[in-house]
Q: What sequence folds into this?
């Protein structure tokens, strides 16, 4: 999969020009539940540099998906500060696109129409139809333009979801366990593809995952979160150049470290 | 039950085994294999091209024609049933056509293919008509005037077609207007209460209380409030259609996957876009369920309204025929009504299949 794509020279970082600069300052968040307020995020500070690939790693239900919804602007934070290039995040914006764990393609739309969603929503479709075709080509699904979602495999559907995000030319791609439901082979292939796309386009990425290997293989920084309410336990910096090799000893060392932070190092 | 299947399955296995090589041999077309396939295919004996069900149907229709023609009608008193001979010759004609298609299916291949599916039904139809004919015209077990033989329907259609056609047209007009107004109103109301919390608060309880009220129960009141019985009927048909459409549209809109909205919102969708391009398309399958239910209400309301107030239409024709004790005319009108209503339902099926073509492969129709 890697060989088919034209990747830049090893070690080259993504161009920072189009990436978003995200600042999360002292953010806390509570859910209103029938039994009272439940705190899911506790005083979290995080910055994503333009063009950086950051992964959030944490135990299931620790609030990492909530943090992601806050960054995307889908929900307002209870307290704290969320900035996108210095401007407060108050509502969803096409420059920060979320790819969810489920592809959530619209079943009544063809693949092409699904990818066209963002442009159509902003009234740009008439003048920029070519961008839909380009996005489909980018994920290698141009021949499936007229297929309906139920005719696609899980991996193909997630690639359509990716194309639907990329067509908007986002400056921040927010990935909510996007590969969580794929089989392991497709997942490995898609990890490489995603990294490749990021390196070519230069947007910032915020990836939420509970897969340690995935986080370390893909991201430049892995933010390990605690149990709910989410706090930052530690930030693991992975300065391995791209394209990375899964068998790299540094990855193994980092993985041990991450698992230890998550309290799962007994079997190592 | 399950043990019986277990016992049967090993027996079914070996018995199928000798048949299996035949198609494979046919594909490879080796000369050695040809006797095997030749022995396997002609299970119909010496006349493999005959359509046997068609011939059986021809026989059944011929029998119907013969018994109608040669068995004298039971004297009713005033006069004999008209069109008895015509009905007999019609049956014999059908028999002749079936005989031709049965003997030479190749001649009329395109017609036969459709006819073949209906083969068993053609036999049953002839048998049913024969029973009907015997118990009414021939034996008089089902006494006139309440029961009429099949040939009396021919008389009705020949002598009264103009009035029937006019009635059907009037009914169709009422239906079209009522359903059109009702479906669109119900749809809008459904979307509104599915989307807006305020609309839901105010409209939903009203629907819950007044919706189950049969529209026919409102008929006597409505005749006072509307200038004509015609507009009353349209209002009530619309009401009957609107209720199920509104309820199901509402439930469809309310049960849309919330992630669809999140996806659209992050891509810059306006509220209008969310309603028109996300909520409504996602709810459409439910809307069609509501429409099918609404049609049932509409038909019932239409007939009752025409029987009680409207001075035209098939319902009115029914009461008119009853007034004259013209029972054959009632049967004739009922048949027209059945065809009309099933035609409307078929039309809705066609529309649904077209609009929801994306569902093919997801949902079993």
A:
């Amino acid at each position: 999969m890697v060989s088919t794509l034209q990747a830049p020279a090893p070690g080259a970082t993504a161009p920072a020009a189009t990436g978003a600069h995200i600042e999360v300052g002292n953010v806390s968040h509570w859910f209103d539940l029938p039994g009272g307020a439940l705190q899911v995020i506790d005083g979290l500070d995080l910055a994503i540099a333009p063009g950086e690939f950051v992964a959030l790693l944490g135990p299931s239900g620790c609030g990492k998906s909530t943090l992601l919804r806050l960054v995307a602007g889908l929900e307002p934070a209870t307290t704290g500060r969320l900035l996108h290039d210095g401007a407060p995040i108050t509502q969803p914006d096409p420059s920060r696109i979320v790819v969810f764990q489920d592809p959530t393609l619209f079943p009544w739309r063809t693949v092409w129409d699904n990818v066209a969603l963002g442009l159509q929503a902003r009234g740009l479709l008439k003048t920029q139809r070519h961008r839909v075709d380009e996005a489909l080509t980018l994920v290698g699904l141009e021949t499936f333009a007229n297929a309906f979602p139920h005719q696609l495999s899980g991996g193909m559907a997630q690639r359509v979801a990716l194309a639907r995000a990329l067509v908007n030319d986002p400056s921040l791609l927010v990935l909510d366990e996007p590969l969580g439901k794929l089989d392991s082979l497709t997942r490995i292939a898609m990890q490489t593809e995603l990294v490749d796309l990021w390196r070519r386009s230069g947007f910032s990425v915020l990836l939420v995952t509970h897969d340690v290997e995935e986080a370390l293989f893909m991201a430049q920084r892995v933010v390990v979160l605690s149990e709910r309410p989410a706090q930052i336990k530690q930030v693991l910096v992975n300065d391995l150049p791209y394209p990375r090799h899964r068998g790299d000893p540094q990855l193994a060392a980092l993985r041990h470290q991450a698992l230890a932070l998550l309290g799962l190092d007994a079997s190592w | 039950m399950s043990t019986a299947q277990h016992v049967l399955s090993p027996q079914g296995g070996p018995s199928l085994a000798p048949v299996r090589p035949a198609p494979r041999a046919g594909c490879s077309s080796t000369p050695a294999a040809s006797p095997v396939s030749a022995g396997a295919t002609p299970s119909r004996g010496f006349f493999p091209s005959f359509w046997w069900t068609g011939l059986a149907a021809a026989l059944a229709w011929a029998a119907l024609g013969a018994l109608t023609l040669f068995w004298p009608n039971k004297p009713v008193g005033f006069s004999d049933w008209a069109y008895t001979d015509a009905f007999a010759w019609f049956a014999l004609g059908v028999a002749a056509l079936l005989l031709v298609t049965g003997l030479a299916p190749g001649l009329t291949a395109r017609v036969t293919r459709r006819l073949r599916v209906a083969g068993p039904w053609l036999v049953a139809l002839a048998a049913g008509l024969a029973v009907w004919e015997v118990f009414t015209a021939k034996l008089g077990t089902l006494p006139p005037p309440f029961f009429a033989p099949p040939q009396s329907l021919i008389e009705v259609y020949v002598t009264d077609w103009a009035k029937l056609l006019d009635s059907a047209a009037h009914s169709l007009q009422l239906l079209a207007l009522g359903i059109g107004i009702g479906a669109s109103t119900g749809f809008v109301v459904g979307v509104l209460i599915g989307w807006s919390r305020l609309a839901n608060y105010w409209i939903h309880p009203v629907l819950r209380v007044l919706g189950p009220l049969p529209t026919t129960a409102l008929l006597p009141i409505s005749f006072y409030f509307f200038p004509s019985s015609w507009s009353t009927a349209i209002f009530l048909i619309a009401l009957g259609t609107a209720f199920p459409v509104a309820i199901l549209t509402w439930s469809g809109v309310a049960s849309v996957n919330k992630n669809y909205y999140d996806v659209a919102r992050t891509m810059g969708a306006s509220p209008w876009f969310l309603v028109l391009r996300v909520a409504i398309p996602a709810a459409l399958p439910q809307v069609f369920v509501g429409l099918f239910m609404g049609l049932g209400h509409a038909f019932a309301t239409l007939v009752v309204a025409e029987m009680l107030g409207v001075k035209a239409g098939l319902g009115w024709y029914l009461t008119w025929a009853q007034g004259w004790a013209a029972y054959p005319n009632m049967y004739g009108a009922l048949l027209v009504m059945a065809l009309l209503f099933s035609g409307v339902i078929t039309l809705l099926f066609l529309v649904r299949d077209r609009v929801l073509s994306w569902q093919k492969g997801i949902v079993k129709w």
